[in-house]
Amino acid sequence: MSKISKVVLAYSGGLDTSVIAKWLQQTYDCEVVTFTADIGQGEEVEPARAKAEAMGIREIFIEDLREEFVAEYVNPMFRANALYEGEYLLGTSIARPLIAKRLVEIARETGADAISHGATGKGNDQVRFELGAYALIPGIRIIAPWREWDLNSRERLLAYCERHGIAVEMKRGKESPYSMDANLLHVSYEGGVLEDPWAAPDESMWMRSVSPEAAPDEAAELELEYRNGDITAINGAAMSPAKVLESLNEIAGAHGVGRADIVENRYVGMKSRGCYETPGGTVMLKAHRAMESITLDRELAHLKDELMPRYASLVYNGYWFSPERRALQALIDDSQRHVNGKVRVRLYKGNVIITGRQSDDSLFDEDIATFEDDAGAYDQADAGGFIRLNALRLRIAAGKDRA
C-alpha cells in the first residue's frame, strides 16, 4: 500500500482520540486533520481546538451538525417507528452515518489519504463508521487504532499521555465508571457495574432524566403538531427539528420519561448490556404512532410494522447508506404524505399517555365507527357473509378427521 501522508480523525478531544491523534503522527509519520462534530452531546466542543493545536495539528474542523442530525437522520428514522429488538431507540446508531459522511467529505476537501476513528474492535461503532465510509468512497483507507495498537487499557493510555505530554481531564476522577455516548437523541451507558446484567444502575448515573418516583406530581400536557410525519410545533410554537427534540428532552426528562435498561445483541456477535436515556425520542415514537393511527390506511400501517424490524436492524448494523435502507426510506416517506395533524400527550411519572389526536387527513369516520345509530352508513348484515367466507377454510379443515 502507498504511504499515508494525511488522515482525518473523528476527534472528541477526550482521552482515546487524543492518544490516537499522537499515535497516528508517530506510527504513520503523517499529518493529522481533526474533525469534531457537535451533535448535541451536551458538552462544549470548542475546547477540542486547543487540544488539537497543542499536538501540532493545523487543520481543525469543528462543526455544529445538530439541525442536520435531527432533520436528515433522526426524523427519517422516527417516520419508520424504528425500534431495535423491541426496546432500543437507536440513539448511538443513527449518529454514526452523519459522522462518517463528514469524515469522508473532509478527506476529499483536504486531500487526505485516509480516515480514522476511536471505536474499539469489540463494538458496533467500528462497523457503522466503516460501512458508511466505504459506501460513500469505496477506496477510502481506514485506520482503526484499537485493532492495531497494544494500548488496550486505561492505564496504558494514561502512561502514553504522560510520556508524550498529552493533557487529560479527569472529569469523573481517576476512573470513569461507565463508557458513555451522548448526542441530542440520547445518552448511553455501558461497562463498569453494568457488565453484570443483574446489577441495578445507580440513580446518580442518569444525566437527562429524574427517576419516575421523583418526578412532579402534576402531569405536563403537550400538543404536538405534525407535518408529513415530523413534529413541527409544540403547544403552538413552531420549532426547528433540533429545537423540537431539545425541548422534548427537557420536558420529558423532567417527568421521568425515557429510561431503558437493555441486553442487546451486537452485530459483531456478543450480547451487551446498556442503559439508555431517550426522553424526547420516547415521546416522538408514541406520538407518531398515534398520528399514524388516524391517518394511515390499515394495510399500509401493517406493512410499515412488518418492515420496521428490518429497517431498525439496518440502522443498528450500520447500513444507513445501503440501497435497501434507501428503498425502504422512499416507501416510508411516501407513506407520510398524509401524516399531518395534532397529537395531545400527557407526561406523568415516566409515562407517555396519548389523550387525543386530530387531522384534516383523518381516515376515522365517526358516522361509521359509532355504536349509536349510523343512519345506514354501515350495513351490519353484510358482516355475516364476510365472516362465512373467511371461515370457509376453517370449516373445511374442521370437517376432516385429523385425529
The counted number of beta strands is 14
The overall number of domains is 2
End-to-end Cα distance, whole Å, is 70 Å
Major sheet: arrangement of strands: 3-2-1-4-5
What is the architecture of the largest domain at the second tier of CATH?
A: Alpha-Beta Complex
SSE series: EHEHEHHEHEHEEEEEHEEHHHEEHH
**Biggest β-sheet strands, sense, barrel:** 5 strands, parallel
Written account of the structure:
Helix 2 links the parallel strand 2 (31-38) and strand 3 (60-64). The protein folds into 2 domains: 6-64 and 93-164, Rossmann fold (3-Layer(aba) Sandwich); 183-358, Alpha-Beta Complex (Argininosuccinate synthetase, chain A, domain 2). The longest helix is centred in the C-terminal third of the chain and has 20 residues, at 298-317. It has 403 residues and is α/β, with parallel strands linked by helices. It is elongated. The mean pLDDT is 93. 39% of the residues lie in helices and 19% in strands. It starts with 5 loop residues before the first strand and ends in a 5-residue tail after the last helix. The chain is built from 12 helices and 14 strands. Strands 3-2-1-4-5 form a 5-stranded parallel beta sheet, sandwiched between helices. Strands 10-9-8-13-14 form a 5-stranded antiparallel beta sheet. The chain has helices spanning 15-28, 47-54, 66-79, 96-110, 125-136, 154-164, 241-254, 279-295, 298-317, 323-335, 366-369, 382-398, and strands spanning 6-10, 31-38, 60-64, 114-116, 141-143, 179-182, 187-190, 220-227, 230-234, 237-238, 259-265, 271-277, 341-348, 351-358.
